[in-house]
Every structure is written in C-alpha cells, then in structure tokens.
Design goal:
This protein is of the alpha+beta class. The protein has helices at about 20-30, 50-60, 80-85, 95-105, 110-135, 140-145, 145-155, 160-175, 180-205, 210-215, 230-260, 260-270, 275-285, 315-320, 355-370, and strands at about 35, 45-50, 65, 135, 290-295, 300, 305, 310-315, 375-380, 395-400. The strands form 3 sheets. A 5-stranded mixed β-sheet has the order 1-2-8-5-3. The chain has a 3-stranded antiparallel β-sheet with strand order 4-10-9. It is globular, with a radius of gyration of 21 Å. The relative contact order is 0.18. The model has no long low-confidence stretch (mean pLDDT about 90).
Length: about 400
C-alpha cells in the first residue's frame, strides 16, 4: 500500500511506465501541497497537485515567479539562469509582457486558420504513406512528421533542414534523460539552434517576406522589436514546444484510442468530434507534466505556509486528473464537455502561445486517421522518455488496416 512517506513525484524512474497517477490521487486527497524530496534543494520543494492550486499559481506571477529561478524543474547557477531569462517562459511581467506582445503577431487564431488547408494536405499525405507501409513505428512515421512540417512552414525553415531541427529539439527536450545524451547534448543543441535562429532572423531583416518570422523581427507601430538574442530564444522555444508536445500528443492519443476502442469507434462514426477529441487527448496525455515557480513572498496555499524563495512545482499531469473538476477523470472521453484541462499552463501570462496551432494539428490529424483507418493495433512495447517533465512515447510499433 502506498503511503505519503513513500511518495516521490520527482523521481524520473516512476514515470517510465507512465505518470504515477495513484501517487497523485493520494496527494490530492491527503496532501495537495506536499513537501517532496529534491536532490538539488536540501529542504525539498512543494509539489502542487490540485487543479485549483495549479491555476492559482499560473495566474499570480507576482507571487510565483518564473524569472527568479526559471521555470525548469532543475537547478541552475545564476549565469545559466540569466541566459534562460532571454526566453519568455523564464520571464515575469513587465519583461514578459513586452516580448509576448511582439511575438504574438505571428500566432493569432487567424494566422493558424490560414494554415488549416496546408495542415490537412500534409495529414493526408502522411497517413496515405503510413497506410502503404501497413506496419511501422508511429512516432517517426506519423507523430513527428506533421509538427515538423508545420513548424518549418511557420518559421520559414527549409524542408531540407527540418530533420536537423528535429534532432536538436529532441536533445533539448530530453535534457533529463541520460539515455538520450543528458545535459551535454542539450547544451550543444541549444548552441546549434541559437545559431540557426540568428541566421534566419538576420535573413528576414535583410529580405522581408510574408511569413511569421518577418512579422516577429520587424518593429511594431511603436518602434519596438525583438533583439537578436530574444528572437533566438523564441525560435528555440517555439520549435521545441511546437515539435515535442504535439508529437507526444499524437502518439499518446493513438495509444489512448487503442486502450479505449469504443472511443475510436465513436470518432470513426463522427469525425466531427475531432476538435473535442484533440482537447481530451491533451488532457489525457499532459505532454508537459510540470512547471516550476519560485515564491516571491510568504503566502499560504492549500493550508501550507510557503516561504519566500521556496521552490514550487505545479503538476499539470495531476491537475488534469482532478476528480473535483473532471467527471470520471481516468476515462478517456472524446466528447468531454466542459474540459478545463491545464495542458497549456492553466491560464495567466504564460498561457501557451501555440495553443491554437497545437489543437488544430491534433484535430486534423485524428480526423484524417478516423476517415482513412479502420483500425490501429499496437504491436509491441511503447517505451517512454525518462522524464518527470515531459510525457513522451519514444517508439510506438503499430499495424493499421484501411477503412
């Protein structure tokens, strides 16, 4: 029997077979603000597991800072943190407000809507190629292809370079997985991607085009514009987030449909459910499991006194299974309504800028799969990234049958 004393939701090994949902359920019920052990912080950190508390943290940057120690679970020295602060996710208002206002111009719902025909055409091609194979690893063949193509299109990356971006992105997202190169591979990938982003931004400044990168690097109507370092940081953020989380969601969605064949039959009967299915996939998978904040003042949360400077870890993956918010949360339900999942951060200033794009990609991909495939069978093990930060299936062998 699991007891509070035995729980450590910061232990990467506990995530190799999927998140420890039983541990999170026990914490939500008995210790929703829990002092968890932390190998890098002697006094440990606060593990926040309830939906309402995760949302409260996300929406109060004045109390829970992204900038003081960054938003990553790991500890970094001040030199590394200062470099990270060039990136939006490691900033607080007003610095964050300025940068987000400048990059928002390229990621409006209208801009994403204009991409729908292209996304649909790419999904069609990807699924047709997969059908011709019959048996394949779904991760590189289907799940990785679409976000790579879309990000390449959006960010002005030539098709010939997209798999280079994929490898760098994978190294950055896998920074806590020692089997995938660990911290050294991450550092090198950041250097490579920064250089690539710098060249891309400079090229658009010299020769503007009608694309997202040009809109981001040019000055706004008040003369404000991103510095080269700010653009490099955003380029890394968008390419990594746009690739990794969407890939994880597509692979995790296929796994969920295999576990709940009634929901696959439901989607095939009504492909119009693809939009709500995309939202449910994001809740179910929780591609980003956790974000970190640092308390800026003494405050109370869930009956616990949190001191200024304390490390606070908000577990999105737990909040997305909160039984006080979601009816039957351990059931995959593609018609779930309402579905206030926090997979994009729980609101507040750091609400994911790429939400519309991610949901649209997942929606169209599963609409296409439902129309073209009669069945998808998982034929072997589905290993996961060793990470408490990202939910990532690294391989998913499948057999497909045409509709």
């Amino acid at each position: 029997m699991t007891t509070l004393d035995s729980i450590d939701v910061f232990d990467q090994e506990r995530y190799l077979d999927g998140p420890p949902y039983g541990d999170f359920a026990l914490l939500r019920a008995q210790a929703p603000v829990y002092r968890n052990a932390d190998p890098e912080v002697p006094q440990g950190h606060w593990a926040i597991t309830r939906h309402a508390d995760v949302v409260a943290i996300a929406r109060q940057p004045e109390l829970f800072s992204s900038e003081r120690k960054g938003s990553q679970p790991q500890e970094f020295d001040e030199v590394a943190i200062e470099v990270q602060r060039r990136m939006m996710i490691h900033q607080d208002p007003p610095r964050h407000t300025r940068v987000r206002g400048l990059v928002n111009r390229g990621f409006t719902p209208r801009a994403v809507q204009q991409l729908r025909p292209r996304i649909a055409a790419e999904c069609e091609q990807i699924v047709e190629k997969a059908l011709a194979l019959g048996e394949f690893d779904l991760v590189p063949t289907v799940a990785a292809e679409l976000p790579l193509i879309v990000i390449a299109e959006l960010m002005g990356i030539p098709r010939s370079d997209r798999h280079k971006i994929f490898e760098w992105s994978r190294a950055i997202a896998g920074q806590t997985d020692h089997e995938n190169g660990g911290a050294e591979a991450t550092r090198q990938a950041v250097v490579n991607m920064s250089g690539y982003g710098s060249e891309l931004g400079e090229a658009r400044r010299r020769c503007p085009m009608d694309d997202t990168v040009t809109r981001m690097v040019k000055a706004d109507d008040k003369g404000n514009q991103l510095t080269d370092e700010e653009f490099q940081a955003f380029f890394i953020l968008m390419t990594v987030a746009g690739n990794e989380t969407t890939r994880y969601s597509i692979a995790g969605g296929v796994e969920a449909f295999a576990q709940f064949p009634d929901q696959w039959a439901r989607l095939r009967a009504d492909p119009g459910l693809a939009r709500s299915a995309a939202e449910e996939i994001l809740r179910w998978v929780s591609p980003t499991k956790v974000f970190r904040r640092t308390a800026t003042a003494d405050t109370e949360l869930g009956g616990q006194l949190i001191r200024e400077g304390d490390k606070v870890m908000a577990h999105l993956v737990s909040a997305n299974r909160d039984e006080t918010v979601f009816t039957d949360p351990d059931r995959f339900d593609i018609g779930r309504d309402p579905n206030p999942h926090v997979s994009f951060g729980g609101g507040g200033p750091h609400f994911c800028i790429g939400k519309h794009l991610a949901v649209t990609e997942i929606e169209i991909m599963f609409q296409t799969l439902a129309e073209k495939l009669g069945s998808i069978e998982i034929t072997g093990p589905a290993p996961r990234l060793r990470s408490y930060q990202f939910t990532g299936i690294t391989e998913l062998p499948v057999r497909v049958v045409p509709a």
